[in-house]
Amino acid sequence: MSHRTKFVIIICLQVLALFGMIAIKHYPLVAGKKIMLKVMPVDPRSLMRGDYVDLRYEVSRPGSLDTFLPKGRVYAKLKRDDDGIYHPEGYFVDRPDIGPDEAVLKGSVDYRGARYGIETYFVEEGTGNNIENMTRTGQVYAVIAVTRGGNATLVSLVSGNGSKL
Amino acid sequence: MRQGFHDRLIKEITLWRSEGVISAEQAVELARRYRAESEIEKKAGPGKFISTVAVLGATLLGIGIILFFAANWQAMPRYQKLVLVTVCLMSVNYAGYTLAFTRKSFPRVGYSLLFLGMLLFGSAIFLVAQAYHINAHFPNGFLLWAAGVLPVAYLLGYRTGIGLLVLIVGIWVGLESYFSAHEPVYNLSIIRYILVYMAYGAFLFELGRTHKAGKYERFRVVYSSFGIVFVMASTYLLTFKWGGTFLLGRHQSAFNRVMLFYVIFAAASLLLATYNAARRSQGDSISYWVLAGLAVLFAAGVFQLAFPAQAGGHPASPENHRYMYPVWYNVLLFAEILCALAMGYKERISAFINTGLVFFVILIVTRYFDFLWKLLPRSLFFMLGGVLLIVGGLLLERKRRRVIAAIRAEAVAP
Question: What is the pLDDT of residue A27?
Fold first, then answer.
């Protein structure tokens, strides 16, 4: 194999790794259904990735953590209310069956609580404070795309009246 | 090529000719061979300078691109940004490879573009993470970045790429140990992280020594020099008297995940040191000394981590143990400097000598102006250091005289 071919293969693998990252997170957007969750944000800054809003949800505290810590995994079963918002209905170690108005989120658990991979929302530089203020004065919801297996991608944040933030 | 080398060479050629070692034709040929290179460097600037300027340019451009994407400019949609960064990544690598290898027309600029490609791969990872709001374990981004840089640097035999790799892995080590330990920021036991970097440095140093021969020999000095800098900088941070109360943190649990990284790097460097010592030809005593030195270094580190109170410097330390810890690290840094100088001279690696001298100056200046130590202990430190160096100089000079005498005796012998 020539030097040039090896170089081309390495660069292609780099690009493939990037597309792999994209594919994992893009799959729920294509194959999953969109649900809305109520959020409680705070606003730190990521040095490499710019401004972001750190989000917490009702499902971030799944009751007693002792049940889930041994496996480090939790499934939060969610049920849709009359306003179209999903709220936690129960927490399981193994994936539960869900009905038409229900969804499930797969998360990892440590002593700080549960994380579902939807806790960080990157915003344009300087706009994080506005979003933080909006959560104090009104209600902010997260639109999440989630597969039947519980893998989720954060799509956007919307205000109480449905406009995108 | 250095100008000084050319001047010395001309002097030597004149001497060889006058002594009849070489013929007139040989003298002309030797002078002609090196004159062209010397003139190029005189008129167009040294090649190394051009490389440095080009790499600095690539670094600035790379950082600029990382910051541009970090600003998360919403006017450009996500897909456009992803396409832009992928196209940039591929075209910069293509241009760099063409200039440096295919056409070989601008190799120095070509290499700097390949360096930019390495930076772009990192910025692409963080852009994807940002575009899809990925928060899964932040340090993994650096690990993936390192995994992309490593094969390129080795394939191209590119030393600057290895330097970048060492720094990326260094950042990953700090972040990963911090994240896995779940320590609250206000109560960090900073000394553990410093010791982790010390072990990382020792690992790099030994990794460099494994590259001593063969295809990747040119990476040896890069790994080992970075290793020495990591080891010495970490030791230096522990030479202060206030280290005990500030660096240790309030909470000292018996075991912590940060220590796991220390143990992994310490074990890896001891393994590499054993491997390096075993494969060396007989008579190379340095490898065994390095192995012994590392064993002492890590034994002391493990003692420090496992018994912080007994090691001294800790608020709970007994009064007579309190000074033990900074004294030990001052002595250790001094010993490390001497080792770097000795190895640098023995193996003719100027980077080791320069690093040793820089840290020697830093240590001396810091201790001279260190108001935390009273004058008496400081005076003892300087006197002891001075006596050690003078005695060392005496021994070295005696050895040198013997070697010279032996060589002369051999030359005179029929």
Answer: 87
Contact: B152, A15; criterion CB under 8 Å: no
Given B70, B102, B117, which is nearest A48 (Cβ)? B70
Residues of A in contact with B155 (CB under 8 A): 3, 6-7, 10
Q: Which residue ranges of chain B lie beneath pLDDT 70? A: 1-4, 36-38, 40-47, 72-73, 136, 182-188, 242-255, 280-284, 308-323, 371-373, 411-414
Predicted model pTM:
0.81
Q: How far apart are CA A128 and CA A121, in angstroms?
A: 9
Longest dimension (CA), chain B: 86
| Nearest C-alpha neighbor of A119 from the set A36, A48, A26, A56 | A56
* DSSP secondary structure letters along A24-45: HHHHHHHHSEEEEEEEEEE--E
Query: How far is residue B56 CA from its own chain's centroid?
Result: 19
Q: How far is CA B171 from CA A47, B139, B168, in A?
A: 13, 8, 5
Q: Is B356 helix (H, G, I), strand (E, B) or coil?
A: helix
Residues of chain A with pLDDT under 50: none
Q: How large is the C-alpha radius of gyration of chain B?
A: 26
Rounded-to-integer distance, Cα A28 and Cα A49, Å:
23
For the record, the structure tokens of B212 come out as 């001593």
**Chain segment B143-167, per-residue pLDDT in tens:** 999 999 999 999 999 999 999 999 9
Smallest Cβ–Cβ distance between A6 and the set B86, B133, B155 belongs to B155
Helices (H), B132-256: 140-156, 159-181, 190-210, 220-237, 243-247
Class of residue B299 by CB neighbours under 10 A (exposed 0-12, middle 13-18, buried 19+): exposed
Which of these, B149, B182, B179, lies nearest to B164 by C-alpha position? B149
Contacts of B143 in chain A (CB under 8 A): none
Bridge partners (DSSP) of residue A88 are A78
User: The tokens of B319 are what?
Assistant: 């009064």
